[in-house]
Amino acid sequence: MDTTAQHGIAKEEPTGPAPRLTLSGVSKSFPGVRALHNVSLSLYPGQVTALIGENGAGKSTLVKIMTGIYQPDAGTISIDGQAVTLPSAHAAFGHGVTAIHQETVLFDDLSVAENIFLGHAPRTRLGTIDWRTMRKHAREVLDTMHAGHIDADARLKDLGIANKHLVAVARAMSIDAQIVIMDEPTAALSMKEIEELFLLIEFLKEERKAILFISHKFDEIYRIADRYTVFRDGEMVGQGLIKDAGQSQIVRMMVGRSVDHIFPQRKAEIGAPVLSVSGLSHPTEFSDIGFELHEGEILGFYGLVGAGRSEVMQAISGITRISGGTITLEGKVITPKSAADSIEAGIVYVPEERGKQGVVIGLPIFQNVSLPSLKRTSKSGLLRLSDEFALARSYTERLDLRASSLSQDVGTLSGGNQQKVVLGKWLAMNPKVMILDEPTRGIDIGAKAEIYGLMRALADAGVAVLMISSDMEEVIGVSDRIAVMHEGQISGILDKEQFSQENVLLLAVGKPAN
């Protein structure tokens, strides 16, 4: 069946350059899970192809096949018209395929030059590494990319995330990689760094590289992509030129339904103050923070990178110590000295780094959900497995978690489903205040709509919600009020009738709102 035509987007006639890389009929299964079924993908020289799909659609599996980490069960991979096998990451590298991930896979304790030429360093006649030539070539590659500000002798750990991405691209350029995979490369970048990355992508296009760009951000996709391919449930359901497809069409292909209203449309019923913060200060991160959070309210916190939003929330959550100020919960002053103190009081914190701080990789889903609730699932010091399963089932069903079973390792779940596990374990604590730090980062649009609906349902049930977000559209669409931070202080709090991108940005740079 022609799934492209089925979804109402005409299949383009092959014109222009031949594809640099083609995957055809690729399938991959794991025990109990069909990750990919008969998928196809083409990447063209000098063009960006956006790979779009919900978490769990099969995008990561495809990337691992393209980079030699996984072997397909069926299908063919062709590079420049010739069928190839990629039995290892080294083999893929040798065929000119390289990947730049959200978290760069480089070595912090090596120099920039060593990272660029790792595995293919120039050699002397005696077979030893030619350090002088390596540094020289590293500087040449960086200069070619307009990244000459990076010192080839600097340790990678001393660079920011954006410059680490540049080093990863320089590594690809050093082997003359023809196929560059970018997997959520902007997730941890500031707006300025994202613009710099887009300039780099334009440079790669001019160099005739074939680029696969994976992102959940439609503004980025429509900004830089030439083509798109959509996956859903491990199958390719559409492809074509990005200029011929509207966002609503692509979303419909992604989720199998229309998502007309991604943000909840209900009118909030705001109650009495639950959390009051006054004069909250930290020696280096923030000072004189004051605000009130009400029952049934979603208070958004916005600010540019380094504004201090997460640091404030970690202090309220007992993770870091404050140097002054008071935290009042339901009229009672609390002084949390640890995260356990805040949790006991009724304040829970859902961290931004869900893979490192939110879940315990290697443990099954049910144990991740029940971990903070061991008092409820044990008796006389012994854990009761049936109670753990019952607790986990109650909250994962409420969150529509997609998993083969509750015994599945949480590390095998998609980002969106991992986030649901994190939310589930803290919902089981019946919190009074829930702090969500970048709750939808790296999550597809369908899962975002579900998370937003859950946040509104929590607020409607009387939970007071604090949400940190770097997504302007999200913070305006979800919040009942918005607190904006600038250089460690709250520069203003906006009511609903004051919401506008202009006002939020003015406060974010330290200027008064209109």
Could you characterize what this model shows?
Mean pLDDT is 85; it is low at 1-14. Helix 5 crosses helix 6 and helix 14 (385-398) crosses helix 15 (415-427). The radius of gyration is 25 Å and the shape is globular. The chain has a six-stranded mixed beta sheet with strand order 6-7-8-3-9-10, sandwiched between helices. A six-stranded mixed beta sheet has the order 16-19-20-13-21-22, sandwiched between helices. It contains 18 helices and 22 strands. Among the domains are: 100-177, no CATH class; 261-346 and 431-514, P-loop containing nucleotide triphosphate hydrolases (Rossmann fold, 3-Layer(aba) Sandwich), CATH 3.40.50.300; 358-430, no CATH class. The protein is an alpha/beta fold and 514 residues long.
Topology at a glance:
Elements: H1 3-6, E1 21-30, E2 33-43, E3 48-53, H2 59-66, E4 74-79, E5 82-84, H3 89-94, E6 97-100, H4 112-116, H5 131-144, H6 161-174, E7 179-183, H7 191-206, E8 210-214, H8 218-224, E9 227-232, E10 235-241, H9 247-255, E11 273-281, E12 289-294, E13 298-303, H10 309-316, E14 324-329, E15 332-334, H11 339-345, E16 347-350, H12 354-358, H13 365-370, E17 378-379, E18 382-383, H14 385-398, H15 415-427, E19 433-437, H16 445-460, E20 464-468, H17 472-478, E21 481-486, E22 489-494, H18 501-508
Parallel strand pairs: 3-8, 3-9, 6-7, 7-8, 13-20, 13-21, 16-19, 19-20
Antiparallel strand pairs: 1-2, 1-4, 4-5, 9-10, 11-12, 11-14, 14-15, 17-18, 21-22
